[in-house]
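As noted in the main text, all predictions were made from sequence alone. Below is one such record, for Small ribosomal subunit protein uS17.
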Amino acid sequence: MTNSSGNQKQRKVRTGVVISNKMDKTVVVEVSRTVVHPVYKKYVRRRKRFMAHDEENRCRVGDEVMIVETRPLSRHKNWRVRKILKEAALPGGAL
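Prediction:
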């Protein structure tokens, strides 16, 4: 799968929920998916956590975000936040 320029690969895109934003310009995003167990044929939820770069520190815990694969930014960061799909509700229902 190449773009119109012919030499770039299509970047992987994932959607997940921010579970930690305690680091500067970094969030931890948990991506869930369901797979069928090969023996028991039961649907099982699989989860994986990705560290993603958040340049403007806009993400909060509970936000649903879209992350895209990028060049290695540090030892564990190979993803960056593309956009916030759904913001988390404020505690107490305040505006």
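The mean pLDDT is 92. The longest strand covers residues 13-23. These features were considered when defining construct boundaries for the mutagenesis experiments described in Section 2.9.
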